[in-house]
Specification:
The chain is mostly beta strands and 174 residues long. It has 1 helix and 8 strands. Strands 1-2-3-4-5-6-7-8 form an 8-stranded antiparallel β-barrel.
Length: 174
């Protein structure tokens, strides 16, 4: 898995070879994600999260992006932050993009005040998406992501965990 991720990171600049009619610059946005958390030892949790995002396109083809997501289901709160390297190619009809980065997160159990019932999460993150221009600065995006492929740490123990799903969002380019 780690070799595949390294190959993806090295190959990302090569996928953005299509023509692009947009320049670099800042963008902000938000959306919703439908996520499933799977544990290596078995079991899963479903989440619907809201996300805010912001980024900077260094050139028409590459940039960086940060996301903050939050969801609450069945007394469990999920909070995560993802940092991405992003490649993008676009034309007048649509854009395609790849994300590769790292995610830090926490799952907190709603319980008694003063108790630390939290699980720390961290791991690699990657995904792909397609966006459609609504106006020259506003885009509607659909994507599939592995939000987190890493570890969950709690009470001195560690377990493998995956957090993946689909999301929709909009972004506004300055």
């Amino acid at each position: 898995m780690k070799k595949w991720l390294a190959a993806l990171a090295l190959g990302l600049p090569m996928v953005a070879v299509a023509g692009d009619n947009s320049t670099g610059g800042f963008y902000v946005g938000g959306g919703a994600a439908d996520l499933k958390m799977r544990f290596d030892e078995g079991g899963s949790l479903d989440w619907t999260t809201g996300e805010i995002l912001g980024g900077y396109k260094h050139s028409p083809f590459v940039g960086g992006e940060a996301r903050l997501g939050y969801g609450s289901e069945d007394g469990l709160d999920l909070l995560y932050t993802s940092l991405y390297y992003r490649t993008e190619s676009s034309n007048d009809t649509a854009k395609t993009y790849l994300l590769f980065g790292y995610t830090f997160g926490q799952v907190k159990l709603d319980g008694d005040v003063g108790e630390d019932d939290s699980v720390s999460l961290n791991g690699f993150s990657y995904g792909a998406g397609v966006g459609f221009p609504v106006t020259s600065q506003l885009n509607f995006n659909l994507e599939a992501r592995m939000v987190l492929d890493g570890d969950a740490k709690f009470d001195g123990d560690s377990e493998g965990v995956e957090l993946s799903g689909v999301s929709i969002n909009v972004d506004y380019r300055f």
